[in-house]
Amino acid sequence: MVGGKRIFEAVGSERRALLAQLESEIVACRACPRLVLWREEVARDRRASFRDEEYWGRPVPGFGDPEAGLVIVGLAPAAHGANRTGRMFTGDRSGDFLYAALHRTGFASQPQSVSRDDGMRLHGAWITAPVRCAPPANRPTVAERDTCRPWLDRELALLRGRVFLALGAFGFQGLCAILGVRPRPTFAHGVEVALPDGRWLLGSYHVSQQNTFTGTLTEPMFDAVLLRARALLEG
Fold first, then answer.
1. Residue (of 65, 63, 48, 49) closest to 12 by Cα position
2. 53-82 b/e with 16+ CB inside 10 Å = b?
3. Does the pLDDT of residue 8 top 50, yes or no?
4. Is the bond preceding 220 in cis, omega lying within 30 degrees of 0?
5. In the CATH scheme, what is the code of domain 2-234?
6. pLDDT for the residue 4
7. Which residues, in sequence order, are CB contacts of 59 under 8 Å at separation 6+?
8. Over the stretch 218-228, which tens digit does the pLDDT of each residue have?
9. Start-to-end CA span in the chain (Å)
10. pLDDT the model gives residue 11
11. What are residue 165's DSSP bridge partners?
């Protein structure tokens, strides 16, 4: 048992080192001219309420527990959220909704994520996105998702994810391609896809203000998806 623990710790240490290396490569990426221009323009011409803050203004790496069984895939960083703070779903209303739900369901150490150094810890969960730079009007293109795909490919290969939760159709389609889901199922809130290797792909409406403010996505609806993910992980 002691020998097995040492092997596990060695593997975990190597995974963390590889994820750190991947992060350093992601934050240096300048592959999409439109996104580079926009993210840096936003970081320079800051929103008045954040004018005294230093914006991240770079691609945003994944965040969470390197040993996570649950991998959550969103859309792209928000211009004044993750593009400002440098952490996925941090510093905006979408993140407030997401992290509160993760806290209620036992995946997060606290209910709100406001900065990279706020002490937030995820337990058994990892958050990432198919596009790493903030896009104009929060609408990345399919071509930009395809250009960014190698980062997500490498990230998922390093993680030990067993349940993948896509927030919205854009991320769901991207995950279907990466996970080799054929035929590709129609996206819907609560959709579940059993993969041949025993892993699962789940879908949820995105936690955007457009969905949460209109009641398209409610707290009970989203909690139910997260609890289903936990049940699959434990089952």
1. 65
2. eebbbbbbbbbbbbebbbbbbbbbbbbbbb
3. no
4. no
5. 3.40.470.10
6. 47
7. 26, 27, 28, 29, 39, 132, 133
8. 999 999 999 99
9. 24
10. 62
11. 72, 202
